[in-house]
Amino acid sequence: ALAFVEKNPFDKAMNAFTHGRDFIRGELYIFVYDTNGFEYANGQDERFVWKNLIDLRDNFGTYIIREILKTAKSGGGWVTYQWR
Question: Could you give phi then psi for residue 39, rounded to 5 degrees?
Fold first, then answer.
């Protein structure tokens, strides 16, 4: 996915991640957020694209996107949350 973004315009890459199947492996798919929680691509559910999801919480109250962004800013790692 990173190589694809580096070689293609941003909008083409986000479209490929959301509407194509080349970046889906079983239950794994690409999703892209900016640092404010705005989603640009989602390979599983396009209803979330073009929305700010910074306040999205799972059934346990975890702020999913906030935790993902915090983990990414600290160098990466694993974030556990419930997703249907």
Answer: -95, 130
